[in-house]
Specification:
By secondary structure, this protein is mainly alpha-helical. It contains 21 helices and no strands. It has one domain (about 30-420).
Protein backbone atom coordinates (compact mmCIF):
# COMPACT_ATOMS: atom_id res chain seq x y z
CA UNK A 1 0.00 0.00 0.00
CA UNK A 2 2.82 2.40 0.89
CA UNK A 3 4.52 1.73 -2.45
CA UNK A 4 1.32 2.53 -4.35
CA UNK A 5 0.84 5.80 -2.43
CA UNK A 6 4.43 6.86 -3.17
CA UNK A 7 4.02 5.96 -6.85
CA UNK A 8 0.75 7.92 -7.00
CA UNK A 9 2.43 10.95 -5.40
CA UNK A 10 5.30 10.78 -7.91
CA UNK A 11 2.91 10.53 -10.86
CA UNK A 12 0.87 13.46 -9.49
CA UNK A 13 3.99 15.63 -9.30
CA UNK A 14 4.93 14.72 -12.87
CA UNK A 15 1.41 15.48 -14.10
CA UNK A 16 1.78 18.89 -12.48
CA UNK A 17 4.89 19.29 -14.66
CA UNK A 18 7.28 19.48 -11.72
CA UNK A 19 10.81 18.81 -13.11
CA UNK A 20 11.75 15.21 -12.39
CA UNK A 21 14.80 16.16 -10.27
CA UNK A 22 12.68 18.31 -7.94
CA UNK A 23 9.80 15.82 -7.91
CA UNK A 24 12.12 13.04 -6.75
CA UNK A 25 13.96 15.27 -4.27
CA UNK A 26 10.82 16.78 -2.73
CA UNK A 27 9.11 13.41 -2.38
CA UNK A 28 12.26 11.95 -0.85
CA UNK A 29 12.52 14.79 1.69
CA UNK A 30 8.83 14.39 2.60
CA UNK A 31 9.25 10.65 3.13
CA UNK A 32 12.33 11.15 5.29
CA UNK A 33 10.50 13.80 7.35
CA UNK A 34 7.58 11.40 7.89
CA UNK A 35 9.87 8.48 8.79
CA UNK A 36 10.90 10.44 11.04
CA UNK A 37 14.60 10.94 10.38
CA UNK A 38 16.83 13.94 11.18
CA UNK A 39 16.84 16.04 8.03
CA UNK A 40 20.56 16.70 8.35
CA UNK A 41 20.93 13.24 6.79
CA UNK A 42 19.78 14.74 3.46
CA UNK A 43 22.77 17.05 2.81
CA UNK A 44 25.06 14.24 3.94
CA UNK A 45 23.52 11.92 1.32
CA UNK A 46 23.75 14.64 -1.35
CA UNK A 47 27.39 15.31 -0.57
CA UNK A 48 28.15 11.60 -0.63
CA UNK A 49 26.48 11.34 -4.03
CA UNK A 50 28.54 14.09 -5.63
CA UNK A 51 31.82 13.17 -3.91
CA UNK A 52 32.62 10.51 -6.51
CA UNK A 53 35.69 10.30 -8.74
CA UNK A 54 33.74 8.17 -11.23
CA UNK A 55 31.13 10.92 -11.68
CA UNK A 56 33.86 13.24 -12.93
CA UNK A 57 33.69 11.33 -16.23
CA UNK A 58 30.23 12.77 -16.93
CA UNK A 59 31.15 16.48 -17.27
CA UNK A 60 34.45 15.62 -18.97
CA UNK A 61 32.80 13.48 -21.65
CA UNK A 62 30.15 16.19 -22.11
CA UNK A 63 32.89 18.80 -22.51
CA UNK A 64 34.68 16.65 -25.09
CA UNK A 65 31.41 16.02 -26.94
CA UNK A 66 30.53 19.72 -27.09
CA UNK A 67 34.01 20.74 -28.25
CA UNK A 68 33.81 18.23 -31.11
CA UNK A 69 30.27 19.38 -31.85
CA UNK A 70 31.31 23.06 -32.10
CA UNK A 71 34.32 22.03 -34.20
CA UNK A 72 32.13 20.46 -36.90
CA UNK A 73 33.59 16.99 -36.41
CA UNK A 74 30.23 15.37 -37.25
CA UNK A 75 30.43 16.72 -40.81
CA UNK A 76 33.90 15.22 -41.23
CA UNK A 77 32.81 11.80 -40.01
CA UNK A 78 29.75 11.80 -42.27
CA UNK A 79 31.76 12.91 -45.32
CA UNK A 80 34.42 10.25 -44.74
CA UNK A 81 31.97 7.39 -44.30
CA UNK A 82 29.83 8.60 -47.22
CA UNK A 83 32.84 8.60 -49.54
CA UNK A 84 33.37 4.87 -48.91
CA UNK A 85 29.81 3.48 -48.71
CA UNK A 86 27.60 6.19 -50.23
CA UNK A 87 27.29 4.37 -53.57
CA UNK A 88 26.04 1.13 -51.97
CA UNK A 89 22.28 0.38 -51.95
CA UNK A 90 20.99 2.58 -49.14
CA UNK A 91 24.50 4.05 -48.94
CA UNK A 92 23.56 7.35 -47.36
CA UNK A 93 21.51 5.50 -44.75
CA UNK A 94 24.51 3.28 -44.03
CA UNK A 95 26.78 6.34 -43.86
CA UNK A 96 24.38 8.00 -41.42
CA UNK A 97 24.26 4.96 -39.12
CA UNK A 98 28.03 4.46 -39.17
CA UNK A 99 28.55 8.17 -38.50
CA UNK A 100 26.21 7.91 -35.51
CA UNK A 101 28.22 4.95 -34.23
CA UNK A 102 31.55 6.76 -34.64
CA UNK A 103 30.30 9.97 -33.05
CA UNK A 104 28.80 7.93 -30.20
CA UNK A 105 32.26 6.60 -29.46
CA UNK A 106 33.52 10.11 -28.71
CA UNK A 107 30.43 11.68 -27.17
CA UNK A 108 28.51 9.20 -25.01
CA UNK A 109 25.40 11.31 -25.60
CA UNK A 110 22.36 10.36 -27.65
CA UNK A 111 21.17 13.97 -27.92
CA UNK A 112 24.54 15.23 -29.21
CA UNK A 113 24.78 12.33 -31.69
CA UNK A 114 21.27 12.81 -33.09
CA UNK A 115 21.63 16.61 -33.38
CA UNK A 116 25.13 16.57 -34.89
CA UNK A 117 24.67 13.89 -37.54
CA UNK A 118 21.06 14.96 -38.20
CA UNK A 119 22.12 18.47 -39.19
CA UNK A 120 24.32 17.05 -41.96
CA UNK A 121 22.42 13.92 -43.01
CA UNK A 122 18.80 15.12 -43.27
CA UNK A 123 19.36 17.51 -46.22
CA UNK A 124 21.65 15.02 -47.99
CA UNK A 125 19.28 12.07 -47.70
CA UNK A 126 16.07 13.92 -48.57
CA UNK A 127 17.76 15.40 -51.65
CA UNK A 128 18.57 11.85 -52.79
CA UNK A 129 14.94 10.72 -52.70
CA UNK A 130 14.91 9.06 -49.28
CA UNK A 131 11.47 9.06 -47.71
CA UNK A 132 11.36 11.87 -45.13
CA UNK A 133 9.83 9.87 -42.23
CA UNK A 134 12.43 7.12 -42.84
CA UNK A 135 15.25 9.69 -42.67
CA UNK A 136 13.92 11.25 -39.47
CA UNK A 137 13.35 7.84 -37.83
CA UNK A 138 16.82 6.66 -38.86
CA UNK A 139 18.45 9.70 -37.23
CA UNK A 140 16.36 9.39 -34.05
CA UNK A 141 17.30 5.71 -33.72
CA UNK A 142 20.94 6.20 -34.73
CA UNK A 143 21.32 8.79 -31.99
CA UNK A 144 20.39 6.22 -29.36
CA UNK A 145 23.68 4.45 -30.02
CA UNK A 146 25.22 7.30 -28.04
CA UNK A 147 24.14 5.77 -24.74
CA UNK A 148 25.22 2.19 -25.54
CA UNK A 149 28.50 2.33 -27.45
CA UNK A 150 31.18 3.37 -24.93
CA UNK A 151 31.81 5.85 -23.48
CA UNK A 152 28.22 5.81 -22.25
CA UNK A 153 26.95 8.17 -19.56
CA UNK A 154 24.05 5.85 -18.51
CA UNK A 155 26.50 2.96 -18.13
CA UNK A 156 28.71 5.17 -15.94
CA UNK A 157 25.72 5.97 -13.73
CA UNK A 158 24.61 2.30 -13.64
CA UNK A 159 28.11 1.32 -12.53
CA UNK A 160 28.10 3.95 -9.77
CA UNK A 161 24.62 3.05 -8.49
CA UNK A 162 25.26 -0.71 -8.49
CA UNK A 163 29.00 -0.56 -7.67
CA UNK A 164 29.89 -2.57 -10.77
CA UNK A 165 33.02 -2.07 -12.86
CA UNK A 166 32.49 0.76 -15.37
CA UNK A 167 35.23 -0.50 -17.76
CA UNK A 168 33.56 -3.93 -17.77
CA UNK A 169 30.20 -2.31 -18.56
CA UNK A 170 31.83 -0.33 -21.37
CA UNK A 171 33.27 -3.48 -22.87
CA UNK A 172 29.91 -5.24 -22.54
CA UNK A 173 28.26 -2.40 -24.47
CA UNK A 174 30.43 -2.89 -27.57
CA UNK A 175 28.84 -6.16 -28.77
CA UNK A 176 25.19 -5.03 -28.51
CA UNK A 177 26.16 -1.64 -29.97
CA UNK A 178 27.67 -3.32 -33.05
CA UNK A 179 24.69 -5.71 -33.22
CA UNK A 180 22.25 -2.78 -33.33
CA UNK A 181 24.46 -0.96 -35.82
CA UNK A 182 24.36 -4.00 -38.15
CA UNK A 183 20.59 -4.43 -37.72
CA UNK A 184 19.97 -0.76 -38.58
CA UNK A 185 22.22 -1.07 -41.66
CA UNK A 186 20.38 -4.17 -42.91
CA UNK A 187 17.07 -2.37 -42.52
CA UNK A 188 18.42 0.66 -44.45
CA UNK A 189 19.60 -1.58 -47.30
CA UNK A 190 16.25 -3.40 -47.43
CA UNK A 191 14.37 -0.09 -47.42
CA UNK A 192 16.50 1.26 -50.29
CA UNK A 193 15.98 -1.86 -52.41
CA UNK A 194 12.20 -1.76 -51.87
CA UNK A 195 11.66 2.02 -51.84
CA UNK A 196 10.44 3.49 -55.15
CA UNK A 197 11.96 6.98 -54.69
CA UNK A 198 15.52 5.97 -53.78
CA UNK A 199 18.28 7.49 -55.97
CA UNK A 200 21.78 5.96 -55.76
CA UNK A 201 24.84 8.17 -55.23
CA UNK A 202 27.81 8.30 -57.54
CA UNK A 203 30.96 6.50 -56.42
CA UNK A 204 33.46 8.91 -54.82
CA UNK A 205 36.91 9.22 -56.38
CA UNK A 206 39.97 7.91 -54.57
CA UNK A 207 41.17 11.48 -54.10
CA UNK A 208 37.89 12.39 -52.35
CA UNK A 209 38.11 9.30 -50.17
CA UNK A 210 41.69 10.04 -49.19
CA UNK A 211 40.97 13.69 -48.42
CA UNK A 212 37.85 13.04 -46.32
CA UNK A 213 39.42 10.07 -44.50
CA UNK A 214 42.48 12.08 -43.49
CA UNK A 215 40.22 14.84 -42.17
CA UNK A 216 38.25 12.39 -40.03
CA UNK A 217 41.19 10.21 -38.95
CA UNK A 218 42.17 12.18 -35.80
CA UNK A 219 38.64 11.83 -34.39
CA UNK A 220 38.54 8.08 -35.13
CA UNK A 221 41.93 7.68 -33.45
CA UNK A 222 40.63 9.69 -30.48
CA UNK A 223 37.68 7.30 -30.09
CA UNK A 224 39.95 4.25 -30.39
CA UNK A 225 42.36 5.75 -27.85
CA UNK A 226 39.62 6.41 -25.29
CA UNK A 227 38.13 2.92 -25.53
CA UNK A 228 41.55 1.25 -25.75
CA UNK A 229 42.96 3.07 -22.71
CA UNK A 230 39.97 2.00 -20.60
CA UNK A 231 40.00 -1.61 -21.88
CA UNK A 232 43.77 -2.03 -21.35
CA UNK A 233 43.58 -0.55 -17.85
CA UNK A 234 45.88 2.35 -18.74
CA UNK A 235 43.33 4.94 -17.59
CA UNK A 236 40.08 5.05 -15.65
CA UNK A 237 36.96 6.37 -17.46
CA UNK A 238 37.38 9.73 -15.70
CA UNK A 239 41.04 9.98 -16.69
CA UNK A 240 40.36 8.97 -20.29
CA UNK A 241 37.53 11.54 -20.45
CA UNK A 242 39.88 14.29 -19.28
CA UNK A 243 42.54 13.26 -21.80
CA UNK A 244 39.84 13.07 -24.48
CA UNK A 245 38.74 16.64 -23.73
CA UNK A 246 42.31 17.95 -24.07
CA UNK A 247 42.83 16.02 -27.33
CA UNK A 248 39.48 17.23 -28.69
CA UNK A 249 40.66 20.81 -28.05
CA UNK A 250 43.97 20.04 -29.77
CA UNK A 251 42.26 18.44 -32.81
CA UNK A 252 39.72 21.21 -33.36
CA UNK A 253 42.37 23.87 -32.66
CA UNK A 254 44.82 22.36 -35.16
CA UNK A 255 42.06 22.34 -37.79
CA UNK A 256 41.39 26.02 -37.14
CA UNK A 257 37.84 25.34 -36.00
CA UNK A 258 38.02 26.33 -32.34
CA UNK A 259 37.81 29.92 -31.25
CA UNK A 260 37.41 31.47 -27.83
CA UNK A 261 33.71 32.07 -28.50
CA UNK A 262 33.10 28.45 -29.55
CA UNK A 263 34.98 27.16 -26.51
CA UNK A 264 32.87 29.33 -24.21
CA UNK A 265 29.70 28.01 -25.90
CA UNK A 266 30.91 24.41 -25.55
CA UNK A 267 31.70 24.88 -21.84
CA UNK A 268 28.36 26.63 -21.27
CA UNK A 269 26.36 23.86 -22.99
CA UNK A 270 28.28 21.14 -21.15
CA UNK A 271 27.71 22.95 -17.85
CA UNK A 272 23.94 23.17 -18.45
CA UNK A 273 23.68 19.47 -19.30
CA UNK A 274 25.92 18.48 -16.37
CA UNK A 275 23.78 20.54 -13.98
CA UNK A 276 20.60 18.82 -15.21
CA UNK A 277 22.18 15.36 -14.91
CA UNK A 278 23.55 16.03 -11.42
CA UNK A 279 20.26 17.50 -10.18
CA UNK A 280 18.46 14.34 -11.35
CA UNK A 281 21.12 12.20 -9.65
CA UNK A 282 20.78 14.19 -6.41
CA UNK A 283 16.98 14.00 -6.38
CA UNK A 284 17.03 10.31 -7.25
CA UNK A 285 19.58 9.61 -4.50
CA UNK A 286 17.38 11.22 -1.81
CA UNK A 287 14.33 9.38 -3.17
CA UNK A 288 16.24 6.10 -3.35
CA UNK A 289 17.48 6.52 0.25
CA UNK A 290 13.94 7.24 1.46
CA UNK A 291 12.29 4.26 -0.25
CA UNK A 292 15.10 2.01 1.02
CA UNK A 293 14.30 3.07 4.60
CA UNK A 294 10.66 2.21 3.90
CA UNK A 295 11.93 -1.18 2.64
CA UNK A 296 10.12 -0.77 -0.67
CA UNK A 297 12.95 -2.17 -2.85
CA UNK A 298 13.35 -5.09 -0.45
CA UNK A 299 9.61 -5.78 -0.43
CA UNK A 300 9.37 -5.58 -4.22
CA UNK A 301 12.41 -7.81 -4.54
CA UNK A 302 10.88 -10.35 -2.13
CA UNK A 303 7.54 -10.20 -3.96
CA UNK A 304 9.21 -10.74 -7.32
CA UNK A 305 11.32 -13.58 -5.99
CA UNK A 306 8.30 -15.23 -4.40
CA UNK A 307 5.90 -14.61 -7.28
CA UNK A 308 8.31 -15.10 -10.17
CA UNK A 309 10.81 -17.89 -9.77
CA UNK A 310 11.87 -18.09 -13.43
CA UNK A 311 14.52 -15.58 -14.58
CA UNK A 312 12.87 -15.42 -18.02
CA UNK A 313 9.56 -14.31 -16.55
CA UNK A 314 11.34 -11.80 -14.32
CA UNK A 315 13.14 -10.26 -17.31
CA UNK A 316 9.88 -10.18 -19.28
CA UNK A 317 8.14 -8.40 -16.40
CA UNK A 318 11.01 -5.92 -16.09
CA UNK A 319 10.92 -5.27 -19.83
CA UNK A 320 7.18 -4.58 -19.83
CA UNK A 321 7.47 -2.26 -16.81
CA UNK A 322 10.34 -0.31 -18.39
CA UNK A 323 8.50 0.04 -21.69
CA UNK A 324 5.47 1.39 -19.86
CA UNK A 325 7.50 3.78 -17.69
CA UNK A 326 9.41 4.88 -20.79
CA UNK A 327 6.24 6.52 -22.08
CA UNK A 328 6.47 9.02 -19.20
CA UNK A 329 10.09 9.26 -18.00
CA UNK A 330 13.35 10.06 -19.79
CA UNK A 331 16.24 7.59 -19.70
CA UNK A 332 18.33 8.86 -16.76
CA UNK A 333 15.26 9.15 -14.53
CA UNK A 334 14.25 5.58 -15.40
CA UNK A 335 17.71 4.32 -14.57
CA UNK A 336 18.07 6.15 -11.27
CA UNK A 337 14.55 5.29 -10.05
CA UNK A 338 14.26 1.68 -11.21
CA UNK A 339 17.76 0.22 -10.78
CA UNK A 340 17.83 0.51 -6.95
CA UNK A 341 14.41 -1.20 -6.85
CA UNK A 342 15.21 -4.04 -9.28
CA UNK A 343 18.89 -4.68 -8.56
CA UNK A 344 18.42 -6.62 -5.27
CA UNK A 345 16.44 -9.30 -7.14
CA UNK A 346 19.23 -10.15 -9.57
CA UNK A 347 21.30 -12.33 -7.25
CA UNK A 348 18.38 -14.57 -6.27
CA UNK A 349 17.47 -14.94 -9.95
CA UNK A 350 21.04 -15.76 -10.96
CA UNK A 351 21.14 -12.86 -13.44
CA UNK A 352 24.52 -11.36 -14.29
CA UNK A 353 24.50 -7.67 -13.20
CA UNK A 354 26.72 -6.63 -16.14
CA UNK A 355 24.33 -8.30 -18.61
CA UNK A 356 21.36 -6.71 -16.85
CA UNK A 357 22.97 -3.26 -17.18
CA UNK A 358 23.22 -3.67 -20.96
CA UNK A 359 19.67 -5.07 -21.18
CA UNK A 360 18.42 -2.12 -19.14
CA UNK A 361 20.22 0.45 -21.30
CA UNK A 362 18.87 -1.05 -24.56
CA UNK A 363 15.35 -0.71 -23.13
CA UNK A 364 15.85 2.89 -22.07
CA UNK A 365 17.33 3.50 -25.53
CA UNK A 366 13.99 2.34 -26.90
CA UNK A 367 12.26 4.86 -24.63
CA UNK A 368 14.25 7.62 -26.36
CA UNK A 369 12.29 7.03 -29.59
CA UNK A 370 8.84 6.29 -28.17
CA UNK A 371 6.24 9.04 -27.59
CA UNK A 372 5.18 11.04 -25.68
CA UNK A 373 8.53 11.95 -24.03
CA UNK A 374 11.08 10.29 -26.33
CA UNK A 375 13.89 12.86 -26.22
CA UNK A 376 15.40 11.97 -29.60
CA UNK A 377 12.02 12.40 -31.30
CA UNK A 378 11.95 16.04 -30.22
CA UNK A 379 15.61 16.61 -31.09
CA UNK A 380 15.12 15.35 -34.66
CA UNK A 381 11.80 17.18 -34.93
CA UNK A 382 13.67 20.41 -34.19
CA UNK A 383 16.69 19.67 -36.38
CA UNK A 384 14.56 18.53 -39.33
CA UNK A 385 11.82 21.15 -38.84
CA UNK A 386 9.29 18.33 -39.06
CA UNK A 387 6.02 17.30 -37.48
CA UNK A 388 6.33 14.93 -34.54
CA UNK A 389 4.02 12.45 -36.32
CA UNK A 390 6.56 12.21 -39.18
CA UNK A 391 9.39 11.35 -36.80
CA UNK A 392 7.27 8.79 -34.91
CA UNK A 393 6.17 7.14 -38.17
CA UNK A 394 9.77 6.68 -39.22
CA UNK A 395 11.06 5.61 -35.81
CA UNK A 396 8.69 2.76 -34.91
CA UNK A 397 10.43 0.08 -37.09
CA UNK A 398 13.70 0.92 -35.35
CA UNK A 399 12.00 0.62 -31.95
CA UNK A 400 10.92 -2.90 -32.96
CA UNK A 401 14.51 -3.71 -33.99
CA UNK A 402 15.72 -2.57 -30.57
CA UNK A 403 13.12 -4.71 -28.80
CA UNK A 404 14.24 -7.67 -30.95
CA UNK A 405 17.78 -6.95 -29.74
CA UNK A 406 16.69 -7.40 -26.12
CA UNK A 407 15.23 -10.79 -27.09
CA UNK A 408 18.51 -11.71 -28.78
CA UNK A 409 20.39 -10.66 -25.65
CA UNK A 410 18.30 -13.06 -23.59
CA UNK A 411 18.88 -16.04 -25.88
CA UNK A 412 22.52 -15.19 -26.63
CA UNK A 413 24.02 -13.43 -23.58
CA UNK A 414 27.45 -13.66 -25.23
CA UNK A 415 26.46 -10.70 -27.42
CA UNK A 416 27.14 -8.59 -24.33
CA UNK A 417 29.37 -10.82 -22.21
CA UNK A 418 31.86 -12.29 -24.71
CA UNK A 419 34.13 -9.22 -24.95
CA UNK A 420 34.43 -8.41 -21.21
CA UNK A 421 34.72 -12.04 -20.02
CA UNK A 422 36.38 -13.93 -22.88
CA UNK A 423 38.78 -11.43 -24.51
Amino acid sequence: MTALLILAALLALMLLRVPIAFALGALGVALLWLYPLPLNAIPQRLYGTMDSFELLAVPMFLLMSNVLLKGGIGRDLFAAVQSWVGHWPGGLGIATILSCGLFSAVSGSSVATAATIGTVAIPEMTARGYNRPFVLGLLAAGGTLGILIPPSIPLILYGIVTENSIPTLFMAGIGPGLFLLAAFILYAIAWARLGPDYQPCARASWAERRRSTLRAAPTVLLAAGIIGSIYLGVATPSESAGIGFVLALAITGAMGRMSREKLVEAVHDAMKTTTVVFLIIAGAKVFSYAITLYRIPQDISSALSAGISEPGLFILAVGLVLLFIGFFLESLSMLLIMVPVLYPSLESMGIDPIWFGIFFVVLIETALITPPVGMNLFIIQGVGKARLSEVVRGAWPFALIMLATTVALWFWPAIALYIPYRL
